[in-house]
Design a protein that fits this description.
Chain lengths: ~675, ~675
Amino acid sequence: MVSALYILHWPDSDSEVLHSELLLQRRYQNDIPNDSKVLSNFDTLYKKLQPHERTPFLFYHGINYVYIRGDHDIILLVVASKNINAMSIVVFLKRFYEVLFNYLCQSTTVSKDKEEEKILHSKLDKDKILDNVNLIFELLDECLDFGIIQITDYNILKEFIKVEANLPKLSSSNVDDSDEEEESSHINKSKSKSTKIVKSPSTANNKDIKSTHNQAIRTDVIEEQHDATSHINSAILRTYSSAINWRPKGIFYPKNEVYIDIIEHCEFMYDLETDIIRRNDIYGTCEVKSYLSGMPVCKLGFNERNMSRIQNDEYDDEHEEQEEIPENQLKPERNEVDDDEDEEEEEEVTITEPEEEQEKSKSNVVQEKRFHIPIRDIQFHQCIELATIYRDSLVTFIPPDDKFTLMTYHVEQQRQKRKLPLIMIKPTFRIIQHSNKLQILCVLNTNFKRRLVCKDIIVKIPIDPHIFDINTDFKTESLKFKAEMGEVSYKIDSSELCWMIDNIHGKKSVRMMAELGLIGSESITMQLIEQFIQNRHTTINGEKSNGGGGGDKAVPENNDHDDTIEELDKFYGVHGQSSTVSDDIKRLSKLRYDYNEIQVNFNIPMLSYSGLKLTYLSIEEDQLKYTCFPWVRYLTKSRKRNLNNAVNTIENGKSGDINKLNNSVNEDYRFKLGKSCFQLLK
Amino acid sequence: MSDGKLFVKSKSSEIKVELDQALKKSKPHAKVKIVLKKLVANVILNNTEIVNLLPDIIKLLKFDDLEIRKLSSHFIISYAPQNPTLAKEAVPYYKRFLEDASPNLRSLSIRTLSTVPIKEYQDVAFGAVTHLLDDNDINVKKTAIYSVSRLFQHNPHKATKLNLIGSLNELLYDHHQVIVSNTLAALNSITENNKELSLTIDKAHSMALISHLTVANEWCQVYILNSLMSYVPQTSDEALELIEACLPSLQHENSSVVLNAIKVIIYFCNYVKNPQLVIPTLPNRLGGSLVSLLAKPSEIQFLVLRNIILLLLGRKNLLNLEVEMFFCKYDDPIYVKDTKLEIIYLLANAHNIHAVIRELEEYATEVDVSMARKAIRAFGNLAVKLSGAAEQCVEVLCDLVGNGIPYIVQESTTYPGRFEFAVESLLEQYTLIDEPDAKTSFIWIVGQYCNDHERSLKILDDLSTNFKEEPVEVQYSLLTAVTKLYLKYPTGGEALMLKVLKWATEEVDNPDIRDRAYIYWRLLSSGSGSNGDFQEESKQIILNPNPSISSENDNIDPKILEELELNIGSLASIYLKPVQHVFRLSKRKVLVPSPALQPRPIQASVSEEDDVIDNNSHTPVIAPRVSNSNHTAATRNPSTLSSRNSIISGQKSFDSASSGTDDKREGFTKRLSRRASLITNKLSKT
């Protein structure tokens, strides 16, 4: 039981702005003091706490504050005086934020084809909320009645509450309902474009765009126009209360399609010094986009028979499994063994008689018994009948309309350390002191099936500005490179070498060599390198200038006098000064200390790293009996790092600068540099 | 157009003019809406002056437009209490809405009527609510259910008289799961606020509820799961049945469902003897689902981690967790990292200590200084907890100290153990120390282990040069250290001791310091001469051997643990404090006795080698259910990492490396034999 909910806007809560600004409040119980008192208490409390004490749950004078932060300094705060179910509340806040985001941002992100609008509407910020106070109240009434959580599913809510989001428009187009319709078909269009890449082109091209549009919504919308007083779609009320509350009745598509994407994000960490895989986790999601009519029942079977259980779960066949596990864990993945096995690029599962299919899948299961993928932490969407997974290892569900996440899972491969990484990087830094050169040699090996193609590889090799002072003078061409594949560039702001390869097949090995000019390479010693590699830089702070040549010193000195003249000189390149800001950038880049990891970005279509495969799929609709077109695709990619959190952890005063630097996208596929990667040549 | 423009404080007269203008139009709806939005904005901005507009707004209810009516109601709810007489005029409108054909209007009406705390409103609401509970429309029904709980809040007496509870109870057997679960939620909120009422359900009904579980929406599942806690199983089989029924929920996508399912399972485990033996997969499943929640946003992670701590303290045998899962990620927020460190500490045992130490070593060299410090503290705690690993811990610490990073040195010194060899490397680095805490510890070390007296003398001399400016705790330790030095090396230490004592007694303002200095002074001046031995008595008093430290105080009182376990996922589980301490008015949750209720398993200490017997607690060995009389100690937050609060017990600990195995249910005999060995130990000493 929540006492009140607030939406606050609090920019720079760490320093400048003393108080948060109330954007919206809803009160449910009268057991707390008035709003301004509550909020000022929250503000002072928050300010008072050390950063590490700022947990999402605060307690002060008998009142509990639970809050989450959104983007753009938006804070959702819940206040309660009772011992509420904190978990529900936090989940609710997260969900509510998503709902708001969907309502206020999503609808226009893909609307029209105006680029500017996309930029404008992609974020949920203060103005958006103020513009839509009415809608948000409406949503809150639905989501949280009497302080008790009711419903947070956007797919249902959007049918339920049809208040238009009030968004600034650049174009003069007036938004009416038919417009909305077009929008959604545009969504479909863009979607079909994006999936086209992996699809066999013949089917994708002649696909009717309108076909993926839900015809039922249109009829409903028309009804609504007649009855202007009611903006609630009454058909949905029934949905909400029926057993299957995530899918409204009466959906109809002329062409029935379902897209199943199995996307696996790899989190990987390799220690180049010790040649040990430190972390090799897979975060998999199964995303489904369903455009199906009526109330279809989908059944999915995976090659992983044990997915329903967390490790050796059901004890009736435990003995059997125990034999399996040790054997399997030492076995390399199948993908690597049967390299030559010709596999279809696009797995199109045809629909046959279910009985037959089921038998087939059973035989599949028997046949594939030997792999055991250590899948854990599977979480299913609420539409899945959890009970049947246990019974016959089939995932049975009635899908919600449109896009949703069917399940997420986590594969930990800590015990499979001898398994080769998908992509292996072997760098060597060679410092040639007599000619002031830094040579970087890098070998990239791909360890997946030869047929597969890895796309958009970006290898980011950091060049620690604390060790190396790169000569960025433009008169002499600084970077020279030779690569068997791809392009190499040096990014001065993040001080890293980017090696970009568009396409590479499996089981290949490519090399790259790059050369950079250095300033003052004499001072580099192995000891210095070692210290930085191991992050023990604190002692060296004093001797920073030692490694980092003249640029560092010159700037503060100049500031003393003739500032403007200097600046002008610099700008026009007078007195031989270069007009670059490279010195400043270099200085900035020294604020960071995370230069000891090589990051790799890639995505490999048609591969699921864990080996999880969809072996069986059937879709049945009792009344309509249509044929359905299922599309299955696999993708393995490097995992993006969550930057918001990383920024939060930085405490020092320079956080502003560091934030700027951190804007570069970080990957979670990493190789930790070791001492052995460096060679010092006199 | 942008509504943001409306978001300014306005005067009531201005708004009134606008409203009048709007009403003059032939189709006023759109204009009226804009004015109302402005009003709502002013409600948010807490503009009390607009209460004057109340009569005008009430008139707007006559428009046949749901949006206008909703906005007006919002205004009325906010301002009616300030002017009850004026607000009364709205009652007839709402009365009429109650009979309206549109379900939306009916629910709006009952919601408003039950919310406004004015007698006229409430009377109408009381009259209508029972009728609406039987409404055909689900939505109206649902609103009516919550209206009942609102009415209960305003006027519990009248609500009981009208037997509203009875009508709600009937709804529990409704065929719609939405109604059932919402009724449960409403009843739950009523019973929580009401001392006399409590929710009880019977076996048949609990099974019926479980059948709803599979079809309900996520939040309804939460309410149903929670209500299962009101059922007291009479036999173990019943409890087992219910546990199994809850197991599928562990894999739900909604973290709240998962955590509540865990709570229910833990609750029913109280009624099963050795649940982990009956359902062997239970620990794996519970552990697995908890770990899976760690992939969620950091706020959820934090909550889960706190609950994991709670379960580790009380129900270690029901959880199967691997310490690797709790290794910090670099992008975790600080509060998550902190909690993870605590869990790493709790999970560390003889088997995984190597991995743990390696991981902690990495944290210790991290960029983030505060994290590094915490990691080093964890080392100290680990060394205390697992005596087998202590040597390794200290070795790593020495390694780190050798690197000469100031904060590492400072933190490390705060853990003076029994490892004298560490002292050497410390002495080398003493110039780096500048924090009072670290200084104190360092001075203590020098005083305690001043074997190389030339050097100790020099160091203490150095450190005492600005004695007067030092913080109090540094002064204390300096005082003691120089006295110790003097006792050991009278010739060398005398001058320094006299100097410090003189400062302390004459120039320091703090009376405590002065007192302590005087005590030492008196002690030393009266000490010599009694029986020839130099300062025999003072030596006995001042130069005491190192006390051993134990991590005994990781444990929370089992009673409190029991209550917290019934509150998994709630706010109390985050604070890890007894519910009544934080929420004074809340009802106490206890395990209801039934034939199947099992005694709480004897809680093996979190530190698996609980070999230091606490000599002030009377009978914890034999009867673990007796609560600790010392409340403050028992309820302390177990975050031992953040504070150095190792109990210094007078008892000399003895080494029992053999008990490093994780024998969780330690037998009574073993404890007895331990006590026996303690006695023999004592005998051999005397």
